[in-house]
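Review box. Two proteins, two foldings.
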Amino acid sequence: MSGRLTTVLTALFFAAVAILALGQARQGSEGRRPDGPRAPRLGPSDAEKERARLRIGITKEQQQQLESILEETGKQTRAVYDQLREKHKQLQALYDEYEIDRAKERTVIREIARLRLRLLQIHSEHETKVRQVLNKEQHARLRALMKEAMESAQRRWRERFPPPPPGTDKRHPGP
C-alpha cells in the first residue's frame, strides 16, 4: 500500500481522536506536550469537551458512549500500529542484506497489507458505532467540527514546517 494511504489513515485516526474526545485542538501553551515533544499530548479540558458537546448537540450520555467507542478504537488501532512497526522493522532488516530473500519479503509485505486492511476495518467499525449513537444532524455537526480541527492542524503544520522557497531544493544541497 502507498505512503499516501498511510498518511490518509493516520490523518483520519487523529481527526477522530481529536474530535470524538469532544475537544478542539488546544491553542497556545495549553497545546504543548507537558514534558517535551515526545511526551503524550494532553487531552481536552473539561471546558473544551463541554463546548464541543454543546456545539454537536449531544447529551452527556452520548458523550460517554462516544468516549468509550473512541477508547476501544484507540486500543485496537495502537495494537495494530505496534504490529505494523514490527513488520516494517523486519522488512528493513531484509533490505539491509545485499541478497534479499524474496520469499520472506513477500511474506512480510503480505502481513503489512493485512495489517493496513485491519486498520481500515477498525475505522469502518468505528464509523458504524458512532452512527449508532448520533442522529443524522449530530453526525453532520461532528463531521463539520472534525473538518475544522483537521484544517486547523494542517494550518499549524504548514506554519511550523513551511515549504522551501521556490527554486531551492533542500533535499539536495548545492556545491
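Next protein.
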Amino acid sequence: MKVGKQDESIFLSKSGTSGQGAPGPDFWSWTPPLDNSTLEDTIDLQMTLKPAPSPKPANPVIEKERSMNILSIPFESTLSETHNPPLPPLQSLMEVGKTDVSESSLEKHETDILFSVNAAEAAEVLHKVGEAFCKGVNPDGSKWWKETGLEQRPDGVICRWTLTRGVSADKSVEWEEKYWEAAGQLNYKELGSEKSGRDTTGNVWREYWKESMWQDIESGLQHMEKSADKCGKNGNGGEWHEKWWEHYNSSGQAEKWAHKLCSIDPNTPLEAGHAHVWHERWGEKYDGKGGSTKYTDKWAERSEGDGWTKWGDKWDENFNEYSQGVKQGETWWQGKYGEQWNRTWGEGHNGSGWIHKYGKSSCGEHWDTHEQQDTWYERYPHFGFQHCFDNSVQLREVNNPPKTP
C-alpha cells in the first residue's frame, strides 16, 4: 500500500472485553514498524502528508513532547498545605474538628469539568475519523500511525474505536491516543478515551476515562456511570495512581468514590513532617430518600532509614432519612519503633435536637457530653442524576446500532 492514501484499517471483530477496558489493540505490546523507507520516500512523505490530528491533552502528564526527563511526583509538602498531618505525642494537642468538605466539593467540580472536556474531545475525534490518514510524518520528524475498527462485545454492544500511535523523531518517546464510542440494546451508550506513553528514561503514563448510560430492564430506571483511571511512573522510583468512579440512577440514588496514591524514592531527603508515600480515599453514597453515608481516609508514610513513621486521619458519617445517625473520626500517629498515639471522636444524632459528643485519646483525654444543637448532614448529592444527564451531551448523542432483523 502506498503511504499517504486515505485507506484506514476498518474491520468488525469479536471483542474479548465486556466494556471494562479500552477496545482495540493493546499499546503496551506494540512496537513501532521498522523504518525501511529511503530518503526519497521520507521527503515525499513530508511533502504530501498532513500532520496527525492531535488534540491538546487536558493533563500535562500525557503530552507527547516532553521537555522534562521525569514525571512530576508531588511531595507531601505540597499536599500538606490542605492535608495537615496530625501532631505526634508530647506536642500541643488541638481539638479535632470535622473535615471541611469545601475542598472535596471543589475537587468534584473540577473533575466534572474534566469529564466534559474529555467527552467533547472524544466526540470531535470520532466525528473526524473519515478525514484521517493511515500514517504520516509530522514536521518535527515524529511519525504516526492511525487505525480504526469495529468490535462486537459478548453482550452484543457494538464499539467503534480509532487510535493514533506515534514515535518521536529520535525514537525516545512512544505514545498512543485512543477514542471510542459504543451502543447496544436498552439504550446503552458509552464514550471513552485512553492516552498512554513511555520513553527511554523510564517514564510511563496512562490516562483512562469512560462514561456510559443505560436503562434497567426490570425497574425501568435510567443509569449513568463515569470512571477515570490515571497513573504515572518515572525512572527515579516515583509513581502515582488515581481512580475515580461515579454512578447515578433516576430514582435519586448516587454513589461516588476516589482512591489516590503517590510515592517517591524512599531514599529522597525530605524536610521534617513530609512523607515518601501518600494515600487518600473518600466516598459517599445516597439512597435517594434522604439517607447518606460518607467517609474520608488519608494517611502518609515516611522512611526513617531503619523504619517507617506513619500518620493519618479519617472520619465517616452514616445517617438515615430521619436524620438519625453517627459521625466519628480518628487522628493517629505511629513511630518507627512501634510507639503509637491516637485520638478518636464521635457524635450520636437521634433527631431530638440534642447531640451526644464523646471521644478519647491515648494521652488520657476523655470527654462525654450532650449538647443542644441542630443536626446537619448532606441528605442529597449536590450533583445528581439530572445534572449528570444534562452535562453528558456528547454521550447522549452517540448513535444506537442498527436493529438486527
